[in-house]
Structure to design on (347 residues):
């Protein structure tokens, strides 16, 4: 039985906002924030304090590491993420100066200035390990971010998504970013009839992130791709695969309009994509309600210690900072509510 849930009103006007951009016209330097001596000194103080008090990710509290000395730039980066283009690449992390665990602690310390880290899976991890799991743990199967296969455009959970590159792959693995606002603009200008199904949304059936013996996530309501609140449009899209799985599970094929709208959404996204390599020592932060991301396939090193490795954060931002339609909040609350946080960050 379907739960009643009304979609938001459809925004038909062109979105005039810095978050609406064409990736072909964007460069990495334009979205970069380069760390300088002042920031590295603040990081040094964090690590020295952590070493002195034996603080690790497993026992760090919300009160630890407020980065008071660089709050002006911390807030500047947040403003660019929430109110600017919606993407910032923080460059110049001192990878050679600290251990990987200490780099992870610094990344966590910066990220939590902007929101609360939320659980990413049933394992309870609030700091996700993005690597090729089948090679790391023999006998396991990878999916999406835990495999070397390509990932199509999608959003994650929470208001801000972060990826910190510790090591890059042997070859491949380019990152892609797409402005959901510019996709919306292009659709409104060329095929406005596709907006209705994209606002109404699609059923999703998500396998692979449930505990053994539990049922996959099967929503009894449609998850909108676009939604609007107080004049602000948001985008939320897991990926095309979970929509196709829902069609098979429910035995309800998409209408021609639904199918064409979804195909066009992807086609426009590919056309507007900003593609770049996230290098070791760079941390990407994006507005998860405005920007979609993907990743090209890659070939990794045979040695485990050289393999591609990134750290992922999902940060929940307040409704005051980012007004988001209740359909998206409801979905994220449903997802995260199924998971219990763990003090230990696990793969």
């Amino acid at each position: 039985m379907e739960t009643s849930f009304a979609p938001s009103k459809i925004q038909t006007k062109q979105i005039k906002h810095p978050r609406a951009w064409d990736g072909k016209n964007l460069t990495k330097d334009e979205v970069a924030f380069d760390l300088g001596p002042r920031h590295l000194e603040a990081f040094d103080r964090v690590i020295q304090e952590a070493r002195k008090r034996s603080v690790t990710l497993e026992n760090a509290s919300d009160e630890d590491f407020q980065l008071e000395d660089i709050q002006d730039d911390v807030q500047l980066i947040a403003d660019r993420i929430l109110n600017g283009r919606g993407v910032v690449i923080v460059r110049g992390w001192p990878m050679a100066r600290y251990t990987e665990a200490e780099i992870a602690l610094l990344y966590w310390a910066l990220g939590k200035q902007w929101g609360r880290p939320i659980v990413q899976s049933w394992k309870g991890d609030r700091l996700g390990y993005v690597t090729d799991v089948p090679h790391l743990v023999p006998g396991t199967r990878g999916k999406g971010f835990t495999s070397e296969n390509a990932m199509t455009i999608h959003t994650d959970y929470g208001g801000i998504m972060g990826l910190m590159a510790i090591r890059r792959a042997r070859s491949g693995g380019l990152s892609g970013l797409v402005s959901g606002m510019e996709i919306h603009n292009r659709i409104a200008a060329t095929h406005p009839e596709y907006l209705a199904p994209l606002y109404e949304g699609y059923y999703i059936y998500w396998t692979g992130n449930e505990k053994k013996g539990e049922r996959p996530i099967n929503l009894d309501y449609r998850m909108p791709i676009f939604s609007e609140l107080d004049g602000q449009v948001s985008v939320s899209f897991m990926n095309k695969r979970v929509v196709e799985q829902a069609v098979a599970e429910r035995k309800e094929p998409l209408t021609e309009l639904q199918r064409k709208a979804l195909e066009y959404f992807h086609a426009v996204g590919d056309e507007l994509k900003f593609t770049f390599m996230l290098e070791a020592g760079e941390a990407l932060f994006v507005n998860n309600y405005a920007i979609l991301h993907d990743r090209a396939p890659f070939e990794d090193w045979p040695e485990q210690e050289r393999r591609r490795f990134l750290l992922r954060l999902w940060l929940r931002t307040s409704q005051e900072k980012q007004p988001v339609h209740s359909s998206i909040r409801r979905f994220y609350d449903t997802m995260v509510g199924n998971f219990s946080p763990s003090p230990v960050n696990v793969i």
Summary: Residues 37-53 form the longest helix (17 residues). Confidence is low (pLDDT under 50) at residues 135-145, 339-347.
